[in-house]
Amino acid sequence: MTSLLKELPSMSTILAAYASLSAMAMLIRTILNEMIPKPMQKLINSKFSHLISNYFSSNFTFIIEERWQAVYNETFRAVEVYLPTRIGPTTDKLLIGSNDTNNPTSLPKRKIPSDCKIIDEFEGMTLEWTLHVRESEKYYIPDKKTFHLTCKKRVRELVEQRYFPHIAKTAQTILSKREKLNIYTYNQDRSRWESAVFRHPARFETLAMEPELKQFIKDDLDSFAGRKDFFESVGRAWKRGYLLFGPPGTGKSSLVAAIANYLNYNVYDLQFQSVRNDADLRRILTSTTNRSILLIEDIDCSTKIAKDRDKVKDDQDKEDKDGRPDRPSSIDPGVTLSGLLNFIDGLWSSCGNERIIIFTTNHKEKLDPALLRPGRMDVHIHMGYCTPTGFRKLATTYLGIKDDKLFDAIDDLIKIVDVTPAEVAQQLMIKSDDPKAALHGLIEYLNMKKDKPEEDRTIQEEEEKAKDEDDKNDGKQRMKLEESETGSIYLS
Fold first, then answer.
1. Of 65, 374, 381, 471, which residue is most buried, by most CB within 10 angstroms?
2. Does the keyword Cytoplasm apply (predicted)?
3. CA distance linking residue 265 with residue 252, whole number of Å
4. How much is the pLDDT for 337?
5. Mean pLDDT along residues 347-361
């Protein structure tokens, strides 16, 4: 033992060797830092660290991105719904907030903030979740979000086969029992849908609509919602298109709200002004969820989509002939008719299930026929002026009465006066605490509208008469001018 100790190097020798090695390592490091570019150094370090961690670590990490190829990742959505229900004492931070403007005192909703760790237990496995957010350098590109799930390598297959299906089923159950609906609008600057709580009071029971039409719509919705297997068997996307057309104030928006409440579907309200081009439209629409309503209001106001292609061709021919456009050109091409059709009835229409697409317009005749055919707008619903049946429903809703001796007089006026349900409702609301006064006020309003067209016709006739007189005077002046010019030419 003594001889062995004598053969060991002294402490000073060990320290000298250590100093020499350290100096050599620092020299090599300095040379490498000078010779190898920074990006290459980072790549080498990351690869080396990854190799060491994989070799020595017993953990495995699943990464779930927000988008999966060209569409929204349904697994990401399921995790987003599931994780707030697994928040426990080990959670170190939490994001809370409320978008329910109708009930400011309601409990805030829970959301998972960036870098928050959530521990979940499933069938004896301990699973750790973390949300990572990488901010985008460009404002029009959304931030990249990913969920990381860390587990032991030995349970990796069990997590894939048992845990992820459990998350999907739980999320589906939560969504099917949701008590609040959301309405979404697209934020172009942030390139994402933003939501608010949707609490519209409209129900089919309160709509001022003919009972036969109400029942037809409800039956059609029930048939659509319960025919998943049928749509698959005939090879069609599980969607339904509705066109609501008619004058303003006839209840198109209220019918959309009633459909949403009846089916318990969220609403995505899309304004084409917020869409840059067809590619942007595809990305936006594939970000909507299943069991939802895509609402495109006043589609006739979007000339590139609504206008008949023959009219577009005529405008282009006129533009080429004149050498200048009728209106200022836009740098951004915007959404085209073909881009919209490709999503609602082309190959992209299969990217999603159980969706209602609703278009509204005040002028159906302005729409391209390609939009109107079945498969795109399957059901056309005319939202017309108020009828006696509609008035009685409004009287029951706003005044709480089902009959009155003034009803017959109002029915007779409504049959000959074009008045919208919104106008009738407004008149009844003015004096809803006094039903008699409200009915008399409505009669006065209807009589005023009945007399107004006669006044308008009289004014129009007087204007046309004055215009004819002006035309005659202009004609006489032109004749005198022509005679004067002719005489001048002749004399010269």
1. 381
2. no
3. 17
4. 78
5. 81
Q: 469 - beta bridge partners? A: none
Give yes or no for a contact between 149 and 64, defined as CB atoms under 8 angstroms apart: yes
Model confidence at 12, in pLDDT bands (50, 70, 90)? confident
Which of 120, 132, 131 is CA-nearest to residue 163?
Answer: 120
Of the candidates 148, 104, 107, 156, the one whose C-alpha atom is nearest the C-alpha of residue 130 is 148
Query: Average model confidence (pLDDT) for the chain?
Result: 79
CA–CA gap between residue 466 and residue 78 (Å, rounded): 70
The predicted-structure confidence for 55-101, as pLDDT tens digits, reads as follows 566 889 999 998 887 778 889 999 999 999 898 888 888 888 887 77
Express as a percent the part of the chain with pLDDT over 90. Answer: 33
User: What is d(CA 251, CA 387) in angstroms, rounded to the nearest whole number?
Assistant: 13
Which domains does the chain carry?
Answer: 51-177 (no CATH), 192-382 (3.40.50.300), 388-450 (no CATH)
Alpha-carbon span 95 to 76, nearest angstrom: 18
State how far the Cα of 164 lies from the Cα of 151, in Å rounded to an integer. Answer: 13
More confident residue, 281 or 127: 127
**Type of residue numbered 363:** H
φ/ψ region of 375 (left if φ > 0, alpha if ψ in -120 to 50, else beta) reads left
pLDDT confidence bin for 42, thresholds 50/70/90: confident
Q: What six digits make up the tokens of 67? A: 């988008």
State mean pLDDT over 20-24.
76
What pLDDT is stored for residue 280 in this prediction?
Answer: 81
Report the 10 Å Cβ neighbour count for 229.
Answer: 9
Q: Tokens 């670590």 identify what position?
A: 57
Of the listed ranges 277-281, 302-306, 345-349, the least confidently predicted one is: 302-306
**Band (331; pLDDT cuts 50, 70, 90):** very low
Instruction: Walk across the sheet containing 125-134 and list its strands.
Output: 59-65, 144-152, 125-134, 117-122
